[in-house]
Specification:
Strand content: under 5%
CATH superfamily of the largest domain: UbiA prenyltransferase
Number of strands: 0
Order of helices and strands: HHHHHHHHHHHHHHH
Oligomer: single chain
Number of helices: 15
Number of domains: 2
Helix content: over 70%
Length: 282
């Protein structure tokens, strides 16, 4: 049971479901239709978990060459390819039925995220240095799906939420790539620091955190959230930015990158809470 649970990448699944919930509450201003809200949460959980299992299936040869993934069930054969495929397909079938119970726009966002993660990102991370950027498309879709489940429309607010997730993901995953530099290099995965160097990656991390900070101000400046959201998120973003800038000076890059990565987890948790409550706070 633990092997099947871990194949679904529970940490990644949970993060995406939390942002989906936040997007819904943001759009609905807490006027909750519990049928659509529960369908969104359960459907998103199953679709995301399914995509993660399919991703593990496609990456099993790659995972066998990386130290941090050599022990997963598919690599060691504790779960067969057939069993994992059936497991993923069953979750996808039920998950998409639940998403269809919200509205067809949310269903379409779910299909886009599912296919772009498995196929588009699956190809890009093996063949281009911009694989991480491609991966922000499915990664930012959960927040948008939550928004569309409540509003059944795409607008400027949805775009800003997506760009916020894009900038967070870029900084978050570039920090992981620096921290796990040797793993990616040994596996011949063309992540940004391996191809462009750690210095340029550090500059990119700083840029994307700065972008995240600006989007936090825009959400309040355009009236989607109040000043409490702006104050909390700007303070948090600037603290994160300060940690990132230290990377231009420190010598122990893996330790620095690990710190930036760990702090990004705090950022996304607080961001989800503030997105959910921002529209109803002063």
């Amino acid at each position: 049971m633990r092997d099947y649970y871990e194949l679904a990448k529970p940490e990644r699944t949970l993060t995406n479901v939390l942002t989906a919930a936040a997007g819904y509450l943001f759009a609905a201003h807490w006027h909750i239709n519990f049928q659509s809200f529960i369908a969104l949460l359960l459907g998103s959980t199953l679709v995301i978990a399914s995509a993660c299992v399919f991703n593990n299936l496609l990456d099993r040869q790659l995972d066998s060459r990386m130290g941090r993934t050599q022990k997963i069930a598919l690599v060691e054969g504790r779960v067969s390819v057939t069993a994992a495929g059936l497991y993923a397909a069953a979750m996808a079938a039920v998950g998409f039925l639940l998403l269809a119970a919200t509205n067809w726009l949310t269903f379409a966002v779910g299909v886009e995220a599912f296919l772009s993660y498995i196929l588009l990102y699956g190809w890009a991370k093996r063949h281009t240095v911009y694989g991480t950027l491609v991966g922000t498309l499915p990664g930012g879709s959960s927040l948008v799906a939550g928004y569309t489940a409540a509003k059944n429309q795409l607008d400027w607010a949805a775009l800003l939420l997506f760009l916020a997730m894009l900038s967070w993901q870029m900084a978050h995953f570039y920090a992981i790539a620096v921290y796990r530099f040797n793993d990616y290099k040994a596996a011949k995965v063309p992540v940004y620091p391996v191809i462009k160097g750690i210095k340029q990656t550090t500059q990119q991390i700083i840029f994307y955190i700065a972008m995240f900070s600006v989007i936090m101000l825009l959400l309040s400046g355009l009236g989607y959230t109040g000043y409490i959201f702006a104050a909390v998120m700007l303070a948090l973003s600037l603290w994160w930015l300060k940690k990132a800038v230290l990377g231009l000076k420190v010598k122990d890059k893996p330790a620095w990158a690990r710190g930036v990565f760990l702090f990004s987890l705090t950022v996304i948790m607080i961001f989800a809470v503030m997105v959910a409550t921002g529209p109803i706070l002063p």
